[in-house]
């Protein structure tokens, strides 16, 4: 069913779900929602499954017309949306009528929001995922453009729901990235490791869904290049110039730079929202702590249920 006609897509709007898993060996990036926290909350507002596709909006500036009556939800960096010029807060469901004009202004803090509909966005699927990795140029999986029509399941009335305040995120604060050391960790000098974990980095302009390049005092003696190997989500690779790069969803599948370790998944969600100039710091953690936190995070969305009021949840 045709739901929205895109008038202005903004700097970059793509369809994203949980990503294309198991195909890195074929040279395809994982892709998927870069901020899984905001993505899962957008779907949770509709009781969608955790793999239902949403629109991922980078930097705002999105505008569309409703082609039927439907309910939407916008989470992430957009703290408010406009419907026919009237302001509505983000992180909740909003009803649209046929012909309504939806506008999501540019973001003051953060870089990514998610627009969800009941049942998820229906678009071209490839190898089990609707996720778009623009640089791969897969036919039918390009960025959303002006004039595109967003399709979904038949529109149905959706209850009014609001993400409770304690679960929302605001993106003004510095980002603390917890690092699980990798097997090349010991190849870095003590001086460089001390520098990595003590200094404050800044997000550079050369940061996107593929990876975040950080600016600061460069590591002075990074190890030489290694034989190319597979790259994990959150890997911190250090090229010859000594400036660390945190690799994210659209990362290349293999690489030959040494890696200090990986940023835990929860903090990758926070890092992707950082704007150029925002502060980033690293600290050490371990696999057990990161896994336990991630399991609680995922299980919350699986096991919680909305109360009748639509403003809080309880455990099933």
UniProtKB/TrEMBL annotation:
It holds the Pfam family CT_A_B. Residues 25-300 form the Carboxyltransferase domain. GO terms for molecular function: ATP binding; hydrolase activity. Gene3D superfamilies: Cyclophilin-like. The keyword 4Fe-4S does not apply. The keyword Hydrolase applies. InterPro entries: CT_A_B, Cyclophilin-like_dom_sf, PxpC. Keywords: ATP-binding, Hydrolase, Nucleotide-binding. This is Biotin-dependent carboxylase uncharacterized domain-containing protein. It comes from Marinobacter mobilis.
